[in-house]
Write a structure and sequence with these properties.
The complex is a heterodimer. Chain A is of the alpha/beta class. Chain A is built from eleven helices and twelve strands. Chain B is of the alpha/beta class. Chain B folds into two domains: about 170 residues, NAD(P)-binding Rossmann-like Domain (Rossmann fold), CATH 3.40.50.720; about 130 residues, Orthogonal Bundle (N-(1-d-carboxylethyl)-l-norvaline Dehydrogenase, domain 2), CATH 1.10.1040. Chain B contains twelve helices and twelve strands. In chain B, the strands form two sheets. Chain B has an eight-stranded mixed β-sheet with strand order 5-2-1-6-7-8-11-12, sandwiched between helices. Chain B has a four-stranded mixed β-sheet with strand order 4-3-10-9. The chains are: A alpha/beta, B alpha/beta.
């Protein structure tokens, strides 16, 4: 794989595009004309854990981009349908990888073309300072697994490529245990942060007294675990332990949904908590607390207007 | 008779001004706001809005100045109950103390410091416009009854209720005052924090069907905790919720807890949802939604410190 197209250049897309451009020919499918122009003219600066400026090609029309071996659909879940539909009819020889939070991104993309598909979830994080500048903050891994018409070998190949570019990645024969671990972790931490406006800090692991926030976090995790068990998934990591560990890192992480509510933007509640609630319903597992938080975050979004 | 209002905020001022108009009642107000106390002493206490009242009474920030009183009416925010009654208890050595505060658990705290306690619930509401001047927003009834573990004599409950009623605050003395109290706490716990967490007014909360179901889930848990204690609600909190949601009633009303959150003031969540959770625990009734809401609003308060 030598030619990579990154569809959607938000934080995750920019981090992937910038790093991968050091080991492959990278093109970016952007939404805005001025974003594409700026990337073509100035390149993409990465700061933070890495420090360099990458050269790449960008356009808003897939037809204007070179034919890639791999397309990474890196937009937010809220933009997925729109980005996937723009890819329809293009890049017939490419493998397409999704990185969205939640469940079902592969199905959304797969409905727009019969590309071979890879699943992935990513834990890395950063901040976008400008169209052409992204800061690399948390160097946690991206996990990749086969989905439709791909083998574990392809997942390994992509993971190796990402690792060679300076990011962390790991390939799995079956991604679902990891995907569910992250889904439960994300649905819990993001919704609680969006409602309390607390960054992911020690309060999330506090369980000493009745009414402490950690008790709610643990109960939410337990609901998610029950749904995963009903789906026949053996979780890769315990989301409660992921939570405790993350709060001990000393870095006060701002979950993306907290940044969204602070900026009065629509959150990913639908793709994260929504997909967990719908999957639990399908499996017949009650998730009253996730349902309550889902309703509260949706209502909080409605209060902006 | 002598009555001391303990905590002369908006609700306390309604009682203070009403009672001070009666010839047979001497009213004292104990409050920590020096500006409010000074204004009351200098020019009296004024109410405007639902009623126009200008009353003269004695106010103080120093509990040692209080004379022995026949009655106390505690009207502080629930988190200040302990400090307020601890400071003033000496004035009620031979008297009875009523609470008209929000939430549950206030009587228990008061009873740690005074002998004879009156359970109470009040619906009137207002806000302080400036020191010595209170906006009276909503008229409503008050219910008083003996606090079961350490009751005031019923004749005394009736004597206080009668004075309040004559002072323009309609008040009922009943044997069991838990029904109205739990109806109000269930109403508040099911609606206030939902407004505070979402930023929506009462009407907008209720017109979202999925959110309205969450409100009902909170109500149902509260009803179960009341039922297991043998408390009969005087009416269904759901009716009050739907009634208030109508345009022209309280559709546009921002719950007081939403106002608290917007002003970054500590809320009464520990005595609303927290109270329902604690009483539920005590009686073996699960209250997972109230517990979740309690933790979330506490989280909101914690976010201001970080």
């Amino acid at each position: 794989m030598t030619r990579i197209c990154i569809a959607g250049a938000g934080v995750i897309g920019s981090l992937l595009a910038g790093h991968l451009a050091r080991v492959a020919d990278v093109s970016v499918l952007a939404r805005r004309e001025e974003h594409a122009r700026a990337l073509n003219e100035e390149g993409l600066r990465v700061s933070g854990r890495s420090e360099f400026t990458a050269t790449l090609t960008a356009a808003t029309d897939p037809a204007a981009l070179p034919e890639p071996d791999l397309v990474v659909v890196a937009c937010k879940g809220t933009d997925l349908e729109q980005v996937a539909s723009r890819l329809e009819g293009h890049f017939p020889r490419a493998t397409v990888m999704t990185v969205q939070n939640g469940l079902g991104a592969e199905e959304v993309v797969g409905a727009h073309g019969d590309w071979p598909l890879l699943s992935s979830v990513t834990f890395m994080s950063g901040t976008r300072h400008a169209d052409t500048h992204v800061e690399y903050i948390l160097d946690t891994a991206t996990w990749i697994g086969p989905y439709r018409g791909t083998t574990p070998a392809v997942a390994h190949e992509v993971a190796d490529l990402i690792v060679s570019s300076g990011l962390k990645a790991e390939a799995f024969d079956d991604l679902r245990p990891a995907q569910w671990s992250k889904l439960i972790f994300n649905a819990t931490v993001n919704a609680v942060a969006a409602l309390t406006e607390l960054p992911h800090d020690f309060h999330f692991a506090q369980t000493e007294q009745l009414g402490d926030l950690g008790n709610l976090v643990r109960d939410l995790v337990d609901e998610g675990k029950a749904a995963a068990a009903a789906a026949g998934i053996e979780l890769w990591e315990d989301p409660w332990e992921m939570n405790v560990l993350a709060t001990q890192r000393g870095h006060r992480h701002y979950p993306s949904m907290l940044e969204d509510v602070e900026a009065h933007r629509p959150t990913e509640i639908e793709t994260i908590t929504g997909s967990l609630v719908r999957e639990a319903q399908r499996l017949g597992v009650p998730v009253p607390l996730h349902t309550a938080l889902y309703r509260l975050v949706k209502a909080k979004e409605a209060s902006y207007s | 008779m002598k009555v001391c209002i303990v905590g002369c905020g908006a609700v306390g001022s309604l009682f203070a001004a009403g009672l001070a108009g009666l010839e047979d009642v001497e009213v004292w107000a104990y409050d920590l706001s020096q500006a409010h106390v000074d204004a009351i002493n200098a020019t009296g206490l004024r109410l405007s809005g639902a009623g126009e009242v200008h009353a003269h009474l004695r106010a103080t920030t120093d509990a040692a100045e209080l004379p022995p009183c026949d009655f106390g009416i505690v009207a502080t925010k629930a988190m200040h109950t302990d400090a307020a009654i601890r400071a003033t208890a000496h004035a009620f050595a031979d008297g009875c103390v009523a609470t008209v505060q929000n939430g549950i658990g206030n009587e228990e705290v008061i009873a740690e410091h005074v002998e004879r306690v009156i359970r109470g619930t009040t619906f009137p509401a207002g806000k302080i416009l400036e020191p010595g001047h209170v906006q009276w927003d909503v008229k409503g009834d008050t219910t008083l009854g003996p606090f079961e573990p350490q009751p005031a004599p019923f004749a005394e409950v009736e004597r206080l209720a009668d004075a309040c009623t004559r002072g323009g605050m309609p008040t009922h003395a009943v044997d069991d005052a838990r029904g109205p109290q739990w109806r109000k706490v269930i109403f508040n716990a099911a609606t206030n924090p939902v407004g505070a967490l979402t930023g929506l007014t009462h009407g907008r909360v209720c017109e979202r069907p999925d959110l309205r179901r969450l409100v009902s889930g909170l109500v149902d848990e509260g009803k179960a905790v009341a039922a297991v204690q043998g408390i009969e609600l005087d009416s269904d909190p759901e009716e009050l919720i739907d009634y208030s949601a109508q345009k022209g009633v309280a559709y546009e009303h921002k719950a007081s807890m939403l106002q608290d959150v917007e002003a970054r003031r500590t809320t009464e969540i520990d005595y609303l949802n927290g109270g329902i959770v604690r009483f539920g625990r005590e009686h073996g009734v699960p209250t997972p939604l109230n517990e979740a809401i309690w933790a979330l609003v506490k989280g909101v308060e914690q976010s201001w410190q970080s």
